[in-house]
Design brief:
With 484 residues, the chain is α/β, with parallel strands linked by helices. The protein is built from 19 helices and eight strands. 53% of the residues lie in helices and 7% in strands. The structure holds 6-phosphogluconic acid.
Length: 484
C-alpha cells in the first residue's frame, strides 16, 4: 500500500504548485488536487515528475490519501471558492483534521470560517503567504492564525518551507487566534503598497526634477540597496531601471502609468478607518493608484491645468541623499502606522500579537523583506509594549537625522509641482504626532457651535463636557456626547 501523504494541497495555480514543490523538497509527501483535474495530470507529468507528489482527481481521493490528523491546504482564489471548498471538505474530514487557507483572504472571512469549521469539530488555519512565485518555491514568509490546536500540527511543515533569516530562524510563527494571520498579511500588503508608492515618488523626482536617466537611477537604487534602504523592493527597482526593451531603451518608460490593485491595500485602509487609526501613508498609496488609473481624464486635465516650470537649483548629489533620507523617514512613519493598526486591532479583537515576531516573519521571504525590519525587531525586543515605533531611541535618532533632507525634498517637489503624497503625508503625520497642541480645539468649538456637540476644557478635568450658546440664539441643550 502506498504511504499516506503528510499534507494535501488544493489549487495548482503558480503559488500552489510552487508551495507543493517546496514542501516536497523538504522531505514531505504531498497529495494534490485541482478543480480542473487535467492540471493535476499536467503537473505530475511535468514539474512534479519523479517527485514524492501524489495526484488525486477528487476531494475524497485527496482526503483518503492523507495521514491523520489530516491537513488540507487551499491555495485558491479568495472568496466564494473558499467557502464552497470548505463545504465540500467538511463531510469528508474527521474530528481534529485541519483545513488551511493560504490565499489572500479578507480577515473577517477567516474569522467566520474559523467559527464554522470549529463548530464541526475540525480545526482551521487562515494563513498569509507572501513572496510571490519565487518565494513560494524557495521560501515564503508564512503568517498563520486561527485554531491554536492546529499550530503544532502544521508547524513542522510551515517552518521547514518558510524563508530563514541569517541565524536560521524561520520567517513563520503562530500569529494568533481567529483572523489574526490574515490580518497581519493584510497589513503586510498595505505596507507593501506604501513602500512601492514611496519608491515611485523618489523615481518621479529623480526623473523629472533631476533629469536622471534610468541607467543613472539604476546606480542610485544600487547604492541605496547597500545601505539602510536595503530591501527586496529597492533591489527589484534597481533591476527594473536597468532592464532594456528589445530596442535597447528602458522598458519601464514604455509601461502605461496606470496602476492595478487587487484590494488588500484598500482593506487595510478601510480597517484603519474603522478602528480610528491614522494610517495615512497606506491610504495615500491606495488613492495614488486610483488617481493613476484615471489616465484618460488626466490626459485631458493636463491640457487645461498648468503647474510651475520644473527647475532644479542646487547640488544633485546632495539632493539624491536628501531623497534617500526622505524615503527612509517616510518608511519609518509607514511602519509606525502599520504597527499602530495591528496594536489597535489586537486590543479590539483580543489577539496577543508578538510585534517583534511579526517583524521577524517579514524579515525574509516576503515582498516587504528588508534589513530595516531587523531594526523593528530590535525595538520590540527591547520594549515589547512600545506605544509607537517613532518613540524607539533608534528611530527617534534616525528620523531626527533625516528630517532636514525630508523637508527639503517635499519643499522642492511642491515648488516644482511633483506630487509626493506618501512622502508628504508621512511628514504631516510626524509633525502632528510630535505636537503637544493641535488645532482641534477650534474644531471642537465649530462642532459645538453648529451642533451643540460639546467640548472638554483645558482648565477643567477630562471627561467633563461643556456646551456654549455661541450666538445667543441657540439653546443650552447639548447633543449627546459619543465618539465612533
Ligand atoms: C505577496 C503579495 C501578494 C499580492 C500581490 C498583488 O505578499 O506575495 O502581497 O500577496 O497579492 O502583490 O497585489 P496588488 O495586485 O493588490 O498590487
Amino acid at each position: 500500500m502506498q504511504k499516506l501523504s503528510d499534507i494535501g494541497l488544493i489549487g495548482l495555480a503558480v503559488m500552489g504548485e510552487n508551495l507543493v514543490l517546496n514542501m516536497e523538497s523538504k522531505g514531505f509527501q504531498v497529495s494534490v488536487f485541482n478543480r480542473s483535474t487535467s492540471k493535476v495530470d499536467d503537473f505530475l507529468a511535468a514539474r512534479a515528475k519523479g517527485k514524492n507528489i501524489m495526484g488525486t482527481h477528487s476531494l475524497k481521493e485527496l482526503v483518503d490519501s492523507l495521514e491523520r490528523p489530516r491537513k488540507v491546504m487551499m491555495m485558491i482564489k479568495a472568496g466564494g471558492a473558499v467557502d464552497a471548498t470548505i463545504d465540500a471538505l467538511v463531510p469528508l474530514l474527521d474530528k481534529g483534521d485541519v483545513i488551511i487557507d493560504g490565499g489572500n483572504t479578507h480577515y473577517p472571512d477567516t474569522e467566520r470560517r474559523v467559527k464554522l469549521v470549529e463548530s464541526k469539530g475540525l480545526l482551521y488555519v487562515g494563513s498569509g503567504v507572501s513572496g510571490g512565485e519565487e518565494g513560494a518555491l524557495l521560501g515564503p514568509s508564512i503568517m498563520p492564525g486561527g485554531s491554536k490546536q492546529a499550530w503544532p500540527l502544521v508547524q513542522p511543515i510551515f517552518q521547514a518551507i518558510a524563508a530563514k533569516v541569517e541565524d536560521g530562524t524561520p520567517c513563520c510563527d503562530w500569529v494568533g487566534e481567529s483572523g489574526a494571520g490574515h490580518f497581519v498579511k493584510m497589513v503586510h500588503n498595505g505596507i507593501e503598497y506604501g513602500d512601492m508608492q514611496l519608491i515611485t515618488e523618489a523615481y518621479h523626482i529623480m526623473k523629472d526634477l533631476l533629469g536622471l536617466s534610468a541607467d543613472e537611477m539604476h546606480e542610485v537604487f544600487k547604492e541605496w540597496n547597500t545601505q539602510e534602504l536595503d530591501s527586496y523592493l529597492t533591489e527589484i527597482t534597481r533591476d527594473i531601471m536597468a532592464f532594456k526593451d528589445e530596442d535597447g531603451s528602458p522598458l519601464v518608460e514604455k509601461i502605461l502609468d496606470k496602476a492595478g490593485q487587487k484590494g488588500t491595500g484598500k482593506w487595510t485602509g478601510i480597517t484603519a478607518l474603522d478602528l480610528g487609526v491614522p494610517l495615512t501613508l497606506i491610504g495615500e498609496a491606495v488613492f495614488s493608484r486610483c488617481l493613476s488609473s484615471v489616465k484618460d481624464e488626466r490626459v485631458e486635465a493636463s491640457k487645461l491645468l498648468s503647474g510651475p516650470k520644473l527647475e532644479f537649483k542646487g547640488d544633485k548629489k546632495q539632493f539624491i541623499s536628501d531623497i534617500k533620507d526622505a524615503l527612509y523617514a517616510a518608511k519609518i512613519v509607514s511602519y509606525a502606522q502599520g504597527y499602530a493598526l495591528m496594536k489597535t486591532a489586537a486590543d479590539e479583537f483580543a489577539w496577543d500579537l508578538n510585534y517583534g515576531g511579526i517583524a521577524l516573519m517579514w524579515r525574509g521571504g516576503c515582498i516587504i523583506r528588508s534589513a530595516f525590519l531587523g531594526k523593528i525587531k530590535e525595538a520590540y525586543d527591547k520594549e515589547p509594549k512600545l506605544t509607537n515605533l517613532l518613540l524607539d531611541p533608534y528611530f527617534i535618532e534616525t528620523v531626527n537625522n533625516a528630517q532636514a533632507g525630508w523637508r527639503r525634498v517635499i519643499a522642492a517637489a511642491v515648488t516644482n509641482g511633483i506630487p509626493v503624497p506618501a512622502i508628504s503625508t508621512a511628514l504631516s503625520y510626524f509633525d502632528g504626532y510630535r505636537s503637544e497642541q493641535l488645532p482641534a480645539n477650534l474644531l471642537q468649538a465649530q462642532r459645538d457651535y453648529f451642533g451643540a456637540h460639546t467640548y472638554e476644557r483645558v482648565d477643567k478635568p477630562r471627561g467633563e463636557f461643556f456646551h456654549t450658546n455661541w450666538t445667543g440664539r441657540g439653546g443650552d441643550t447639548a447633543s449627546t456626547t459619543y465618539n465612533v
